[in-house]
Amino acid sequence: MSKKSVRKLLRVRDGQRASEAAAGDKPLSSGDKAADKQIVEELAREISDLQDVLYAQREHKILIVLQGMDTSGKDGTVRGVFGKIDPLGVSSVAFKAPTLEEKSHDFLWRIHRHVPAQGELTIFNRSHYEDVLITRVHDWISEAECKRRYAHIRDFERMLAETGTVIMKFFLHISSREQKSRLEERIANPDKHWKFDPDDLKEREYWQTYQRLYMRAIHATDANHAPWYVIPADSKTHRNLAIASIVLETLRELKPSYPPGNPEYAKLKVS
Q1: What family does the database annotate (predicted)?
Q2: pTM (2 decimals)?
Q3: Under 8 Å between Cβ of 235 and 39
């Protein structure tokens, strides 16, 4: 499959519903896990090279949003795709439950403080979308407020795009069966207890509600300047392969270049 088709292949479609079966799809896989991992390494190196140029150019800002159910692989994506990138100009922000101070402001206040500056690449591990997901699942906000927040998000992301931010949003789509397996693995392995929260089991009871609200939020906020991609994520290797492919394709399209050299520097001598 041509790399140029990856964004089109995984871009959310009108009316699309992420089925349980689709979470296990591997449209980009070669069928050889080791070979796919090697490809991810190669893609990550090229992403790193392009980010170095973007950092020097200071023209674009790159924002990557990772959303998904518990255990869907947000941390794994940060490590597997972006972990080997030159950290200069790269940051990752993990959004937790809002603090009292954050709650005293509008819901986007804490988000806006972390958007990338010129030349930077920022990864949101969870994001402002939590404020139209868990808040709606548990009826902490009304339906009317949820619709207002969709509108605020659309306006916010449009403003970011119009001021130079390139936005990529990824829904890491895992199946209920795969989440069950990963939660059981965390419970069984003491070395992974730090990753486990008993509340994850409570949230799992709302699985179908979350799936419905995820697709609602995605369709309400998908835009050409802030596209959503639905990433089959039951396979960790394929998840990384898909996201790395889309990020690289997007960065290549920017055609970054180093700033022009200063001819006056040719006259300088270092003693």
Answers
A1: Belongs to the polyphosphate kinase 2 (PPK2) family. Class I subfamily.
A2: 0.94
A3: no
